[in-house]
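Whiteboard transcription, Tuesday session. T.W. wrote the C-alpha cells on the left side:
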C-alpha cells in the first residue's frame, strides 16, 4: 500500500467512529491479526516480522520454515496469537523501532486508528504505547502539558507525565503512583502560583483560600484527602481502581491548566510568553 493518504482521508471522509473504551488489559485476536496486516502493508515480508517477534519473545526462528508463505507467515501468526496480551504491545513498539520515519507514520496511524475504532484504551505517542482515555481525559491531559510547557513549569510537567506513565505500565498499571504524581503536579503549580515553595497541597489551600474560587476549592481539598488515603496511606483491601486514578489525573490536569494560564497571563505583561490557547 502507498504511504499516501487514501481518498477518504484526503477529503475528510474517513468513517472512523470512536468506540467507548472497554479494552485495556487485553490484546484481542483482531488486534493481533491487524498488526501483521499493517506491517505487511509496508511491503514487508513475514521473515522481517519474524526477526522482530523472535527477538521480543526470546525464541529462535524455526529454521525448518524457509518459505515466506505460508510457513514463516504461520510461524509469525503463532507468535502473536499465543503470547501474553502485553507482549503484543511490546512487539508493536519493537516494530516501530525498525521502521524508517515514513513507514513509522503510516504504521502508527493505522494502529492508532484501530485502537480508536475498537475501543482499545491505548495509543502510540513518540513510538511508545501510552494509556488513552475518553475525549475529555485526552483534552485535559493535552492542555495541561501545553500550558505547563508554556509556563516553564517543568517539574509540574514531569509529574503529570509520570502519572501517565504509571497508568500506562504493563501488565499492571501503577494506580497509586498515578494518583501521587498527578497531585504532585497540582501541588507544584499552586506552590509556584502562591510563592510558597514548601507547604503541602493541603496546607496551601488553608493558607491561600482564594487560589481557587469557592466552592470549587473544596474539590482540591477532597482530592488531597483522597490521595492521602488511596495514594500514600493505603489500607489493606482498599486499593483504588483504575478509573478513580484516571479521574484524579483528569481533574488535577484541568485545575493545573487553569492556574497555569493565570500564571502565564500574570507574567506576560513583563515578558514575552507564547500562550498556546
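and on the right, the sequence the group agreed on:
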Amino acid at each position: 500500500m502507498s504511504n499516501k493518504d487514501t481518498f477518504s482521508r484526503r477529503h475528510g471522509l474517513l468513517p472512523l467512529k470512536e468506540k467507548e473504551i472497554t479494552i485495556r488489559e487485553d490484546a484481542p485476536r483482531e488486534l493481533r491479526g491487524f498488526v501483521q496486516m499493517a506491517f505487511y502493508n509496508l511491503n514487508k515480508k513475514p521473515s522481517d516480522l519474524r526477526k522482530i517477534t523472535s527477538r521480543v519473545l526470546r525464541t529462535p526462528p524455526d529454521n525448518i520454515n524457509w518459505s515466506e508463505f505460508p510457513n514463516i507467515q504461520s510461524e509469525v501468526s503463532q507468535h502473536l496469537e499465543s503470547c501474553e496480551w502485553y507482549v503484543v504491545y511490546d512487539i508493536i513498539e519493537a516494530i516501530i523501532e525498525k521502521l524508517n520515519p515514513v513507514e513509522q507514520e503510516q504504521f502508527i496511524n493505522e494502529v492508532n486508528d484501530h485502537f480508536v475504532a475498537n475501543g482499545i484504551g491505548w495509543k502510540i505517542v513518540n513510538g511508545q504505547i501510552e494509556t488513552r482515555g475518553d475525549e475529555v481525559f485526552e483534552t485535559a491531559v493535552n492542555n495541561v502539558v501545553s500550558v505547563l510547557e508554556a509556563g516553564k513549569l517543568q517539574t509540574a510537567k514531569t509529574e503529570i507525565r509520570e502519572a501517565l506513565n504509571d497508568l500506562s505500565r504493563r501488565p499492571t498499571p501503577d494506580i497509586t503512583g498515578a494518583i501521587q504524581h498527578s497531585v504532585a503536579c497540582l501541588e507544584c503549580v499552586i506552590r509556584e502560583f502562591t510563592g510558597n515553595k514548601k507547604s503541602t497541597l493541603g496546607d496551601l489551600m488553608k493558607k491561600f483560600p482564594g487560589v481557587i474560587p469557592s466552592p470549587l476549592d473544596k474539590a482540591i481539598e477532597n482530592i488531597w484527602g483522597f490521595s492521602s488515603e488511596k495514594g500514600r496511606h493505603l489500607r489493606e483491601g482498599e486499593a483504588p481502581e483504575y478509573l478513580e486514578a484516571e479521574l484524579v489525573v483528569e481533574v488535577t490536569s484541568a485545575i493545573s491548566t487553569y492556574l497555569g494560564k493565570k500564571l502565564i497571563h500574570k507574567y506576560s505583561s513583563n515578558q514575552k510568553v507564547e500562550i498556546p490557547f
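Someone added at the bottom: The radius of gyration is 22 Å.
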